[in-house]
Design a protein that fits this description.
This protein has about 180 residues and is α/β, with parallel strands linked by helices. The chain has one domain: Rossmann fold, CATH 3.40.50.2020. Helix content is about 20%, strand content about 30%. The chain is built from three helices and nine strands; from the N terminus they run βαβαβββαββββ. A six-stranded mixed beta sheet has the order 4-3-2-5-6-7, with helices on both faces. It has a three-stranded antiparallel beta sheet with strand order 1-9-8, covered by helices on one side. Inosinic acid (IMP) binds next to strand 5 and helix 3.
């Protein structure tokens, strides 16, 4: 069992389980895209950690690129109105694209992103998310690859932050209730 860090209420998914699931997703993606071109699009910053591990579990050549986006409106709850802070460097027209996300909550951010990328006419566009909170979904999105379904709680670690901290935890933890006062959930 990993050491529980300050700020963590409990460990939801331990390090070995995270790594095992990421490896399995890599195998699945490698099989699905065998013999085809593949571009992974990561959403900064949370997806960086998942993306780095996932890519090393994919056995054929693939490329990565990143986007940075920010929600307009309330800082805490997703409004679905999204501003692109950093766009892709690579032209995705005619490419097989997988959007790599850390977590899908309401789904509003991803829904915007999918419409935006679809308009650039990729050959295929799919989503791979490490975590999903189905209870919180406000808009249905087809998600091809899911690491774990989790309950409606605020999680940190393995890329996920609370006020920009805790991304470096090697496991997925539930934020300690003492810190929860400042979160939307
Ligand atoms: P959505 O538009 O509501 O799906 O917002 C998704 C974004 O909200 C994610 O990319 C995260 O940045 C953030 N988020 C949602 N739930 C959590 C959580 O439990 N921990 C940390 N960040 C979260
Ligand atoms: Mg965040």
């Amino acid at each position: 069992m990993s050491e529980v860090h300050h700020g963590v209420g409990e460990i939801l998914i331990d390090e070995a389980s995270v790594q095992g699931r990421v490896a399995a997703l890599g195998v699945e993606i490698s099989a699905d895209y065998a013999g085809r071109d593949l571009l992974l699009v990561g959403v900064l910053k949370g997806a960086v950690f998942f993306m780095a591990d996932l890519m090393r579990e994919i056995s054929m050549p693939c490329e990565i690129d990143f986007m940075a986006i920010s929600s307009y409106g309330a800082a805490t709850d997703s409004s679905g109105v999204v501003r692109i802070l950093k766009d892709l460097d690579i032209n995705i027209t005619g490419r097989n694209v997988i959007i790599v996300e850390d977590i899908i909550d309401s789904g509003l951010t991803l829904s915007y992103l999918m419409r935006n990328l679809q308009a650039r006419e990729p050959l295929t566009l799919e989503v791979c998310t490490l975590l999903t909170k189905p209870e919180r979904r406000e808009i249905e999105i087809p998600i091809r690859y899911v690491g774990f379904e989790i309950p409606n709680c605020f999680v940190i670690g393995y890329g996920l932050d609370f006020a920009e901290k805790y991304r470096n935890l090697p496991y997925i933890g539930v934020l300690h209730p003492d810190l929860l006062a400042g979160t939307p959930h």
